[in-house]
From TrEMBL:
Protein name in UniProt: 5-formyltetrahydrofolate cyclo-ligase
GO terms, biological process: folic acid-containing compound biosynthetic process; tetrahydrofolate interconversion
Short name of any one Pfam family annotated for the protein: 5-FTHF_cyc-lig
Protein residues bound to ATP: K7, A8, K9, L10, R11
InterPro entries, alphabetized: FTHF_cligase (IPR002698), FTHF_cligase-like_sf (IPR024185), NagB/RpiA_transferase-like (IPR037171)
Entry superkingdom: Bacteria
Swiss-Prot/TrEMBL cofactor(s): Mg(2+)
EC identifiers of the protein: 6.3.3.2
A GO MF term: metal ion binding
Length: 189
């Protein structure tokens, strides 16, 4: 089976598993995200904005962090060319980006040194930090830039979606630093 077919099959499998598991564990995952952020703050290891995402159906919904944490947050904006950038999430109304996801299009683009942590969605992860997403490549292209690769990046997903087997890896896949699940934060080994 070629890699593209294998990834498509895994996407279906993990999307169904995530949909089944997330309602049971979402609140606990959000609490673990808060605990992780507070731990980084206490240790002095978090500066600037925290990059979050606008949730698609079936993804962990982190929007309540905007109300509860009172920390500067940023949202991604996807471009027509497949690019991704992060912009401050302020009170300015959100508008749909190239992928039709609400985003702060009217805010300035943030540089990598203005973001201390990126939290991104995933269908699955493996122990190497390889993330299985939807196949658009937005985050891999974005993180292929060395400055952005240096920003601590964690996937947010149910523990059941942490693959015990290695996921297929293409040459453009950029490993993440770890993940946050209902079990807490885990770093890539």
């Amino acid at each position: 089976m070629n890699q593209a077919i294998a990834k498509a099959k895994l996407r279906r499998q993990f999307k169904a598993l995530r949909a089944q598991q997330l309602p049971k564990v979402q609140d606990t995952i959000i609490q673990q995200v808060v605990n992780t952020i507070q731990g980084y703050l206490k240790a002095g290891r978090l500066r600037g904005h925290i990059g979050v995402y606008w949730p698609l159906s079936g993804e962990v919904d982190l929007r309540e962090l905007k109300l509860n944490l009172k920390l500067p947050l940023a949202l991604p904006v996807s471009g027509e060319d497949g690019s991704l950038s992060y912009h401050p999430w302020t009170l300015t109304p959100l508008r749909k980006d190239a992928c039709m996801i609400p985003a702060p299009l009217d805010e300035a683009i943030l540089d990598a040194d203005e973001i201390g942590l990126l939290l991104i969605p995933a269908l699955a992860m493996d122990q190497r930090g390889i993330r299985l997403g939807y196949g658009g490549g937005f985050f891999d292209r974005f993180r292929s830039n060395l400055a952005w690769r240096k920003v601590r990046t964690l996937a947010v997903l149910p523990q059941a979606c942490i693959s015990t087997e290695l996921l297929p890896r293409d040459s453009w896949d950029v490993p993440l630093d770890g993940w946050i699940s209902e079990s807490g934060v885990a770093r890539v080994k």
